Records
---
Amino acid sequence: MRIGIVTSGLGIARQCLRKNTSVYRTCRRQVTGSGSPLDLNVDSKTGIAVLSMNKPPVNSLNLEFLTELNIALEKVENDKQCKGLIITSSIPKIFSAGLDITEMYQPDIDRLEEFWRTLQDMWIKLYGMNCVTIAAINGHSPAGGCLMSMSCDYRIMAPNYTIGLNETQLGIVAPFWFADVMLNTVGFRQTEMALQLGTLFKTEEALNIGLIDKVVPQEEVLSAAQQEMQRWFKIPGFARQLSKTELRRPTIEKLLKKKEEDIGYFRDYITKDAIQKSLGMYLESLKNRRK
Ligand SMILES: CCCCC/C=C\CCCC/C=C/C(=O)SCCNC(=O)CCNC(=O)[C@H](O)C(C)(C)COP(=O)(O)OP(=O)(O)OC[C@H]1O[C@@H](n2cnc3c(N)ncnc32)[C@H](O)[C@@H]1OP(=O)(O)O
């Protein structure tokens, strides 16, 4: 039941309307504006924020969407009532199609650099979130979608979808920090095979290699995430957070030290003729799939 104030633009709802019956004590605030590609609802009773991506047709991550994601993550991190964040999708059958390939094909260089910087920032925030993060993967999750999922603390996925870092299938290379996150998640052997082959794992295969943690029917993905959150909430927050920080800090610091260098690599690599040709062909193949 939503009884909060819906704010427009970037404003956060500042107050909650409460009625006197217990059922109304849950104060759920929608903290993104209508028409936003993100729907962020914070339930102050449970301390769980649900961030739902809603950018048709496939939740592809372009500069504007990444900027919105950064703002939403910051809101959650700064909201003292939020103990946990669930990331999911409102688009049927798609969690996220990953990076918006049109950002990388025949790009404007300033925008391309900004795009990459914003992606780096989003990942640094998400991977380092203090609160518990759960990916409720209710659709396909290739490449950048897989990065977002792997950056959460726990992954619950519906059957019959695919997830993985499939960059090589596009003729491009997953950056070192994408690879590092996969390495941290499934180990070296699975990562070296998956990255070279650009494997998109089916849900069950992903479970078998530890890329995801649980499979539940489509309609139960969100409720299973809410339930899983309770297990994490039982652990003293400070001890859990510190354990996470200790484990993830070296990976984050590696990128922090090389941020500008990484932007330069990306720009120089993506603008190569051969890479542009591969991306153009891949885009074309996506468009022709339905013909
Ligand atoms: C050595 C130094 C290295 C330094 C770094 C260098 C390199 C950079 C690496 C960059 C890392 C890249 C990460 C990525 O995330 S790349 C994106 C990878 N994503 C994909 O391959 C997914 C492609 N999409 C699909 O497989 C499917 O669309 C689907 C997600 C399974 C959904 O299928 P379906 O429901 O059948 O939808 P359609 O295929 O019909 O798609 C609908 C329209 O959306 C367009 N589309 C799809 N994905 C993307 C995308 N990622 N970006 C932009 N546009 C996308 C698709 O073309 C359709 O458009 P249309 O309606 O105009 O035809």
---
Amino acid sequence: MRPIVVVHGGAGHIPSERAHGSMGGVCAAVKAGYSLLTAGGSSVDAVVEAVVNMEDNPHFNAGCGSVLTAGGQVEMDALVMDGRDLSSGAVSAVSNITNPVKLARLVMEKTSHVCLTAGGAAVFARQMGIQEVSTESLITEYSRARWKRNQEPGANPVECQMGKMGTVGAVAVDSEGNVACATSTGGILNKMEGRVGDTPCIGSGGYADNSVGAVSTTGHGEAILKVVLARHILFHMEQGRSVEEASDLGLSHMRSRVKGLGGVVTVDAKGEWSARFSSNQMAWAAACDQTLHWGLYKGEHFTEAIVQTL
Ligand SMILES: NC(=O)C[C@H](N)C(=O)O
């Protein structure tokens, strides 16, 4: 099977001064995941690597760069799923760690549970030897300014969020045909403390099953949860739809049923892939057959050969 990685850096409107950074970020992340895959790594290794790369990049709403809660705190959600046996790991409302997706992977591999939240997740992170970091180190000037703006009377954080989302995610197929997904986010702007979005919920923020494929989602979390977007798309693929048709059907169902906008990256077990969105933009990138693909606006699709350095 030809190895494939597809990533997104969030659906929404990306201000022009941030577009370059977002595009560079998704391309760097997909290349990081792809070089692991071509060196024999698994699809789980590849999606985690790609997502860590974007969590560490302050351009995205995940890890450093996460949006803030109403109280000005950072509460992050993440998910990882292994399509071989449906093993899943997730964390919600975690603070003070740099890479929530790594903690989600540890939940999957080291516990008998699927999701740990808030204080319990923090205790587990300490037990696993994950370094604690200050909240300040996860907050960028940009996220603090947006938080402040949305504290003002008359502000509409939900509307503002619909414009700029920035969650990150990845799907991959490895040379053995195993699929995986991972998604990570700071959530939505000025959210209530304790709000859990779609990202850590299996079937909404992502899903991976070798018998069908894998999906990672981004967009308005409450809308994604209501239609269980990732699993909904895989259902259409089980009915014989292509990755692209199934992704579009899922997104249009979310739009017509609950007025939600978003985007998805999808792969199937045969090695087909797609990056689709109902929002104005979504930074996405894919790597397969030694070729890098990327785009930001609807219909945009650039390609370039990947030159691997030894
Ligand atoms: N930026 C996003 O995609 C937001 C995320 N889906 C959430 O609602 O938490």
